[in-house]
């Protein structure tokens, strides 16, 4: 579909707030308007860092002062320990629409996905909703790995793929997909990403235009976007830090904090919390606001770390992007 025709399609659909019933859908936005505005935060990792509550509060406080259609956290949020309730209360203090994505570390400590969902107040592992003429899908990349995939669960299983197929067939709206694990980076992303991407591309081909516009993820604690066969794949940086592992340990905090948070020396924290605001407009543009910070203490260059792959930089920011859709 030519870009001008695509923008006309977006303008025609975004001017009406459409509410449809889909399998797995449990809520929808009803705010009138020609654009969708949303707030997004990823990988706070409250259980691993000493200031996770303050980072989340900064995001929620700023979100309160904006006219948003919804906010979403992209996973690796908090384990369902009772003592984490005050952190969750900060997220729940946002009085608008709010959504969760399950991350692979949200079940650490032996918890099930169902227990984490109960703690968060999440209704389904994967689901969809509409807002102002745009369709949003939340996927769960934590299905059990079949052979030969190893390590932590990072798979989208047959039942979820069948649901995704039906959900996409049930909408003609421009569609955005959220998942914790990326559908782009093979090093730690969704194990069967090629299968999922093929399904998305088949739907775009059948629709005759780029119906599925972008897939947005967290997980890698990096800042990157690319386009594969007409679909954007966008990685949103962690709010908190970048993991660097035991070969590059640095003690940046007090002995007391390092004793309480045993993995602190394995990461490079960001001085300020990272999060972003996204606008989808009726003229056919996806805008991601920049959010800048700095490394707390030495960064990767000072630590002598080797260069990273293009799609996995270690940087303390979220880049501003204005992508034509």
Question: Structural class, from helix and strand content?
Answer: alpha/beta
Mean pLDDT: 91
Outline type: globular
Number of discrete domains = 1
CATH-defined topology: Purple Acid Phosphatase, chain A, domain 2
Given the structure, what is the number of helices? 7
Instruction: Give Rg in angstroms.
Output: 19 Å
Strand proportion: 15-25%
CATH architectural name: 4-Layer Sandwich
Query: Going by CATH, what is the homologous superfamily?
Result: Metallo-dependent phosphatases
Order of helices and strands: HEHEHEHEEHEHEEEEHEEEEEE
The residue fraction in helices comes out at: 10-25%
Describe the structure.
There is one protein chain. With 325 residues, the protein is of the alpha/beta class. It has one domain (3-324): 4-Layer Sandwich (Purple Acid Phosphatase, chain A, domain 2), CATH 3.60.21.10. It is built from seven helices and 16 strands. It has helices at residues 3-14, 52-64, 85-92, 113-120, 158-169, 193-207, 255-260, and strands at 36-41, 70-73, 98-100, 127-131, 134-138, 175-178, 212-217, 224-228, 231-235, 241-243, 267-269, 276-281, 285-288, 291-292, 317-318, 321-324. The strands form four sheets. The chain has a six-stranded mixed sheet. It has a six-stranded mixed sheet with strand order 4-5-6-7-9-8, with helices on one face. Strand 8 and strand 9 (231-235) form a beta hairpin.
């Amino acid at each position: 579909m030519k870009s001008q025709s695509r923008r006309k399609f977006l303008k025609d659909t975004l001017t009406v707030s459409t509410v449809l019933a889909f399998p797995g859908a449990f809520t929808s936005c009803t705010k009138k308007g020609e654009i969708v505005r949303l707030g997004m935060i990823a990988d706070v990792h409250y259980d691993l860092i000493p200031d996770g509550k303050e980072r989340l509060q900064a995001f929620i406080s700023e979100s309160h002062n904006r006219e948003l259609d919804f906010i979403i956290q992209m996973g690796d949020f908090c384990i369902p320990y009772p003592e984490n309730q005050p952190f969750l209360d900060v997220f729940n203090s946002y009085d608008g629409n709010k959504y969760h994505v399950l991350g692979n570390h949200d079940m650490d400590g032996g918890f099930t996905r169902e227990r984490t969902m109960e703690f968060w107040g999440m209704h389904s592992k994967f689901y969809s909703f509409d807002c102002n003429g745009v369709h949003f899908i939340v996927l769960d990349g934590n299905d059990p790995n079949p052979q030969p995939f190893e390590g932590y669960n990072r798979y989208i299983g047959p039942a979820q793929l069948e649901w995704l197929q039906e959900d996409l067939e049930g909408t003609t709206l421009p569609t955005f997909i959220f998942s914790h694990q990326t559908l782009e980076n093979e090093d730690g992303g969704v194990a069967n990403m090629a299968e999922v991407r093929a399904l998305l591309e088949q739907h775009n081909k059948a629709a005759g235009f780029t119906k599925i516009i972008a897939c947005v993820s967290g997980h890698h604690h990096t800042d990157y976007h690319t386009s594969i066969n007409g679909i954007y794949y966008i990685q949103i940086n962690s709010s908190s830090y970048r993991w660097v592992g035991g070969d590059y340990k640095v003690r940046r905090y007090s002995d007391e904090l390092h004793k309480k948070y045993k993995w602190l020396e394995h990461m490079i924290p960001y001085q300020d919390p990272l999060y972003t605001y996204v606008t989808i407009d009726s003229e056919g543009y996806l805008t991601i606001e920049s959010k800048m910070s700095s490394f707390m203490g030495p960064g990767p260059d000072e630590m002598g770390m080797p260069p990273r792959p293009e799609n996995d930089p270690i940087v303390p920011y979220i880049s501003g992007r204005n992508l034509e859709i």
